[in-house]
Amino acid sequence: MKNIKWSIILINLILLMGYFNYSVGKKEALLSDGQLILLKLAPVDPRSLMQGDYMRLRYEISSNIRIDSISKRGYCVVKLDSIGVARKIRLQSGNSPKMADEFLIEYTAGKWNINIGAESFFFEEGKATKYDKAKYGGVRVDDKGNSILVGLYNEQMKKIE
User: Most buried among 16, 57, 98, 115, using CB within 10 Å?
Assistant: First the structure.
C-alpha cells in the first residue's frame, strides 16, 4: 500500500513538472517569436508599500469600455497606427474575424475595466524615477491572443533599461 501512495505522488509530481515546463516553453516561444506592439499607458501610482517598487499599468485600449456590455473573456482587436502604437479597433468574444494587419490580445473583464494580463511591472527598489517617464508598455503577442509584457518604453519609443 505504501508503494502505491509513493507511485501516485511521483506520477503527480512528474505531471506537474511536465505542465510547468510546457508553460515555460510557451512563454519563451512568445518572447522570441511574438510580435512586439506598443500600448499607450494611462497614468497610475508607481508604488506599493507591501510589494516594493512596482508600477501598476493601465492601458489606453482598456479605457472607455462599458463592462456590462461585453463578455467576461474575449479578445481586444488592435491595429498599429502610423507610428507603431496599437489602437483598439473592437472587442470580440472569439478569435475571429481578424484582418491580416490586426492583432489579438486576450482579455478578462474585471469589475471596472478589462485586464490583458500585463498590469504590473516590477523594478529594482529605488529606480522609480527612471520609469516615471514611461509612455508605452511593450507587449509581445502571438496569433492566438496570448501576450507578455517585455518592458516599458519612453516617448521616443525606446525601451527603458
Answer: 57
